[in-house]
Every structure is written in C-alpha cells, then in structure tokens.
UniProtKB/TrEMBL annotation:
This is Alpha-type protein kinase domain-containing protein. SUPFAM superfamilies: Protein kinase-like (PK-like) (SSF56112). It comes from the Eukaryota. InterPro entries: a-kinase_dom, Kinase-like_dom_sf.
Length: 113
C-alpha cells in the first residue's frame, strides 16, 4: 500500500496559505501490510479494518480505512481531503494544548498518522 501525508504545520500562516495543500508538498511512502478479511466498523463513507504493518523490523498494529464502493469513484480525491483535514486537526490540537497547559485544562489527544 501507499500512505500519503503533508508535513505537520508549524505556523498559522502556513495553514492560511492557499498553496500549502498542493501536490508539491505531499509526501508518500510504500509499505507492506496484512489486512483483516472483514471490517470491524463502518462509517457513513468508509470501512475500518484491523491491519498489521509487516514491512518494518517489528510488526506494527494499525487501522486501514477503505471507502464504500458507492463513493469509490471519487475515493482518491476524498483521501486527499481527509489528509488535509487530518493535517489541520493535528496543528489545531497542538496549538490548543499549548494554551490548555498554561490554563490547567485537559489536553486534546490527536494521533499523529
């Protein structure tokens, strides 16, 4: 499989930059995995499967999501939008946690994927 991501944002200006989320900033990596034959959950748009990343020294547990067949015709475009949303959510949760720490508020936990 192939996983794609944008670099983690470190400033609000990058987040506001309309050119940040373009192909030139997109990274990808190939990896080998084993996936369960049946999903453990299904949302409105995607199925979620347990999987194992078997390409590295130690096997790593992971979750792989697949778009339902009904919406699969735009699945790559939807995947890119999901990457953008995840990148923004990661940045905003980090910024929130910096403020929350000073005000003794609970932190937001966001998985870095």
């Amino acid at each position: 499989g192939i996983v794609m991501w944008y670099p983690i944002l470190d400033t609000l200006n990058k987040l506001k930059d309309p050119n940040y989320f373009n192909k030139s900033n997109l990274f990808s990596r190939s990896f080998s995995f084993k996936i369960a034959s049946q999903p453990f959950s299904a949302g409105v748009e995607r199925y979620a499967y347990f999987a194992l990343d078997i390409g590295s020294c130690s096997t790593k547990k992971m979750v792989i999501k697949e778009y339902h067949r009904v919406v699969r015709n735009d699945s790559f475009k939807k995947y890119i939008v999901a990457i953008e949303i995840s990148t923004i959510a990661s940045f905003l949760s980090t910024e929130f946690n910096l403020i929350a720490e000073r005000k003794d508020l609970p932190r937001v936990k966001f998985l870095n994927v």
